[in-house]
């Protein structure tokens, strides 16, 4: 349901997006940035604006644009980077209301996945770019996309697990480019600062891949920035999560990690964090023995649990096979039904096509037979009449389609207008009741008494006004003449008004009579269905009209009963049928003559 009190800018923008072609939609959506920036941060007005943007599907339009190819979008990567900022700002702080499940389970994961896909595309374009200026622009757009992703994850931390498990994020992390790698490592560091616990919730294979990539960048990358970020990441993970620390110490994959870390350069900016990491990975001997015992115990528990799970799965294997067979048969049945339906649709389409061809052939044959009957001198006239009829039919269908389309477009605005009128009427009625209630309970305080000084002041003002505006002097004779003229004009006005009222009443009576006759004619049965004296009710009271209708009726009957060869123009002299009588309208033919004496 659309919210009430929507910002008119959002309404106009949504209407413009709906009416504009697809290639202009991305540029139109950029106007959302001005609307969001013009609203104060953290205010309830901003929340209302975001809710309106979501309710009018503008966020979904942004997602659709981001999923398109960059070369087809006007403005290229500049437009896409700005749309990512708009999408992240609209999603953070948004309260979807009734559509919360769709928003959190479908829209937000799709937005995060689109950001990662855009990052991979920018990474590919950056690597393939030849000019340094172009590379700087692409790097700037890549940073905007990563910042938008981080802003989205900061507002919805439940998406962090989805991002860490994504293959696109792992590909971004495995890049060999220094600048892209530094940006992605900074993004990972910021994500883990928000909630590092989600790293343990992902699959073990993905966790190993992320740790391997961080260690590879620490040990093999010459860039000190990336090495510093990788060191800080490993130190935070080892200090925050005991499971990762045990994995780095005891796993066979990371055997010899401590010796490799000791060989790193000590005179660097991150030497202190590197030393802390080495100290964490080289515990005392008794701690290592204890951890080995705990590891063996965990392996034993896992072995028992995996054996139990395997035995349980084997017991359920027959039912699983039956379910698999049922699913396969159901799918095969659906496939056969779909093939039969497509075959029936194809047969129906061919049958309809044959019917159309047969109808067209019959139409052409009937037209040729009519041309054979019609005299050669009348062929051109006949063709012209057929063209006019065809044009009228096409115009009728086109106008009907156009009016229905306009009505569908105007229906929402008409509904809103009616709703506004109802609300205004209710508010005005409520205010009138309130005023009436207040007037009823308002006590009468009386008039304020005038003091002597006030009376003297008012008398002085009256005397001054009379002195400044003296009255005109008129004799008694002039007054009587003016009175007589006034009475005469007043009498003339009242007489004219009475005549006009009688004429108006006569016109209204005639209009009522005409309306009654039209209603009777519309509800009248056909001549075949008429029974008894029903046709007598429609006899005209005007003798000239009745005589004309009767003459036209007899002329038409005479023309209809004549043979066809007498209707041709070259034999028209034998039949005296005036053209005016043949073109008489249906209403004139329907009204019969007066009842004969």
Task: Describe the fold and architecture.
The protein has 597 residues and is an all-alpha fold. The chain has three domains: 275 residues, Leucine-rich Repeat Variant, CATH 1.25.10.10; 91 residues; 59 residues. 75% of the residues lie in helices and 0% in strands. The chain contains 24 helices and no strands. The longest helix is centred in the last third of the chain and has 62 residues.
Brief summary:
Helix 8 runs parallel beside helix 11. The protein is an all-alpha fold and 597 residues long. It has helices at residues 8-19, 25-29, 31-37, 44-55, 58-66, 77-91, 100-128, 132-155, 160-165, 167-173, 178-194, 204-220, 224-240, 242-250, 257-262, 271-281, 285-315, 317-373, 379-440, 452-468, 476-523, 543-561, 579-582, 586-590.
Topology (elements, then pairings):
Blueprint: H1 8-19, H2 25-29, H3 31-37, H4 44-55, H5 58-66, H6 77-91, H7 100-128, H8 132-155, H9 160-165, H10 167-173, H11 178-194, H12 204-220, H13 224-240, H14 242-250, H15 257-262, H16 271-281, H17 285-315, H18 317-373, H19 379-440, H20 452-468, H21 476-523, H22 543-561, H23 579-582, H24 586-590
Helix pairs in contact: 5-6, 6-8, 7-8, 7-10, 8-11, 11-13, 12-13, 13-14, 13-16
